[in-house]
Amino acid sequence: MVTLLAVCVAGVVGYQVSRPTRVSASPSVFVPSPAFFEKLSPGFRTSIADAYYLGMVQYYGEHLKSDQRFDSMPAMVDLVTALSPHFKRAFFFGAFALIDANRPDVAYHILQRGFRENPTDWHFPSYLGFFAYTYATAKERDTLAAGWYEKAAAIPGRPEYLARIAASLLAKGGQVKKSIIMWGQVYTAGDKYSEQRAVTELNKLLPTEKQARMKAVAPLSGTMPKADFEALIAELFKGYQ
Questions:
Q1: Residue 166 and residue 57: Cα distance in Å, rounded?
Q2: pLDDT digits (tens, 9 = 90+) for 111-121
Q3: Pairwise CA distance, residues 10 & 12, whole Å
Q4: Are 166 and 150 within 8 A, CB to CB?
Q5: Per-residue confidence (pLDDT) for residue 241, from 0 to 100
Q6: Which terminus of the chain has a smaller tally of CB atoms within 10 A, N or C?
Q7: 192: how many CB neighbours lie within 10 A of its CB?
Q8: Is the distance from CB of 98 to CB of 63 less than 8 angstroms?
Q9: pLDDT at 87 over 70
Q10: Which region, left, alpha or beta, applies to residue 69 given φ > 0 means left and ψ of -120 to 50 means alpha?
């Protein structure tokens, strides 16, 4: 049975990678379920995913230039990413290809799966923030996107701009206290632009009355290095007696 299954798999994969590079007559093509391959070894599943990824890219290119229909793209992306959960390029290419297939909802769930499998890669929550902000309903858009950008900003090696996006969206979504904390994190990044931006945005968010302002910034003392906190306080209380 194992030998028979291997022969069948080889035939399917061979067809996908060697089929002519002409436009398919139909945007709907056969895509097997990931369950068909679940009994195979991880290494074999990864090789199959590589082959199907090439077929997925070819399918996308063919229909992008012709009928602009991508009916089978959701199934293709699901198959490749399920078989090879650490194949990051497949997740990213597939997610944005699904926009052309008018299925950003599927893209969102695919990226969530990718983040579960690759929790140290900031690209996943960053892209999830983008999809949430672009396609979620207006009521939940800012809060949902801010949550993803917060996660991205917490991952080592992420670019500094992610924390600024998270802080802005938190304030926009009405989460002012969390936004103040996040702007404190932006300030500690050490970049001069980040420091200036944090001071500017905090001055917009904080009360102008001295005692109320002191109360609002107090939580920052527990989230920032002492030297950074004191430097920030000096900036925020310039002109106050």
A1: 33
A2: 999 999 999 99
A3: 6
A4: yes
A5: 75
A6: C
A7: 8
A8: no
A9: yes
A10: beta
Residue-wise pLDDT tens digits, 179-212: 999 999 999 986 899 999 999 999 999 999 999 9
Report the C-alpha gap between 81 and 1 in whole angstroms.
26
Q: Is the pLDDT of residue 176 over 90?
A: yes
How much is the pLDDT for 172? 93
CB-neighbour burial class of residue 74 (10 A; exposed 0-12, middle 13-18, buried 19+): buried
All residues at 6 or more sequence positions from 90 whose CB lies less than 8 Å from its CB, including other chains: 49, 53, 56, 77, 80, 81, 84
Q: Check residue 17 and give its pLDDT.
A: 45
pLDDT at site 25: 54
- The enclosing H or E element of 53 equals helix 42-64
Return the residue matching tokens 């590589």: 50
Phi-psi region of 136 (alpha: psi -120 to 50; beta: other; left: phi over 0): beta
Distance CA 205, CA 240 (A): 17
Q: Confirm if 149 and 162 have CB atoms less than 8 A apart.
A: yes
184: left (phi over 0), alpha (psi -120 to 50) or beta: alpha
Residues 6+ apart with CB under 8 A from 61: none
